[in-house]
Design brief:
alpha/beta, Maf protein, six-stranded mixed beta sheet, binds 2'-deoxyinosine 5'-triphosphate, binds magnesium ion, magnesium, metal-binding, EC 3.6.1.66, ribonucleoside triphosphate phosphatase activity, dITP diphosphatase activity
């Protein structure tokens, strides 16, 4: 009987940075081997499946690492085909670390993950880590926000203090971890306002401003946001990691 082997069905384990043309003739794939194909030039994985976060994280990394070719060097979990990680942790930091470890292990590249959410004072910090699934179904921003507004329907402005929280984790394939936090305090509006951003942006008015997060231009939001703060704190670690094995220093720079 001829051996059944369809190379198009085979998953190719790849070394970090290697472009794979064809599958190996190995009929017994190693279950531990990565089935992820890494585009050449990739240096960092953003371990998120949230398009809104991804756009913000890419812009932040471009701003923090001006020498980096972000288009090429920064890939995301979705485009690598990495599965969504079950967020089994009970804190933002635990879930950020879970997501970053999973992506770093699967890709062989350093990975950054963000676990974030909205914490409402009168709800003792809820929705918190349950922000993305507050209305029951994961990632339905409109349903989440409408449920929250309905729950707080009787609460007057002076008791609507809330804040975004972000834990950002950088994990290397060897398992080294860096974890940083950021917060953005504000007041929950009675109705959604603005059409920028994502998630709960239309219902949080940052302290000191008279617009919602969804009315800020992206640069302004990133400058003051929970995610912006956490990523700024992570930046020196990212710079140190990504400058390892980097080409040359700037002309004239002492080494
Ligand atoms: O700047 C923000 N502006 C508005 N809403 C935000 C923000 N930052 C987090 N949020 C909300 C969205 C989601 O309801 C939850 C994050 O949940 P979180 O599990 O961290 O992300 P996710 O599941 O959407 O994507 P992933 O886990 O793949 O990164 O908090
Ligand atoms: Mg999530």
């Amino acid at each position: 009987m001829p051996e059944q082997h369809d190379p198009s069905q085979a998953a190719a384990p790849t070394a970090p940075g290697a472009a794979v043309e064809s599958a190996p003739e190995d009929p017994e794939p190693d279950p531990d081997a990565s089935a992820v194909s890494i585009p050449s030039g990739a240096r960092l994985v953003l371990a998120t499946h949230n398009a809104g976060k991804l756009a913000e994280l890419r812009a932040m990394i471009a701003a923090e690492l001006p020498g980096l070719d972000v288009e090429r060097a920064v890939v995301d979990a979705g485009s690598l085909g990495l599965p969504d990680v079950r967020e089994t942790g009970t804190t933002f930091q635990a879930n950020a670390l879970l997501k970053a470890h999973a992506a770093a292990e699967a890709s062989g590249l350093p990975a950054v993950a963000d676990d974030s959410g909205l914490a409402v004072d009168v709800l003792h910090g809820a929705p918190g880590i349950f922000s993305a699934r507050w209305a029951g179904r994961h990632g339905d921003d409109t349903a989440n926000l409408e449920l929250l507004l309905a729950q707080l329907g009787d609460i007057p402005d002076e008791h609507r203090a809330a804040g975004f929280v972000c834990a950002a984790a950088l994990v290397t394939p060897e398992g080294a971890e860096h974890l940083e936090f950021g917060h953005l305090r504000g007041t929950l509006l009675q109705e959604p306002v603005g059409d920028g951003g994502f998630g709960y942006d239309p219902v949080l008015r940052p302290d000191g401003l008279d617009v919602s997060c969804a009315q800020l231009d992206p640069e302004h939001k990133n400058r003051i946001s929970h995610r912006g703060q956490a990523m700024a704190a992570l930046a020196p670690h990212l710079v140190a990691l990504l400058s390892q094995g980097a080409p040359a220093a700037e002309p004239g720079e002492e080494r």
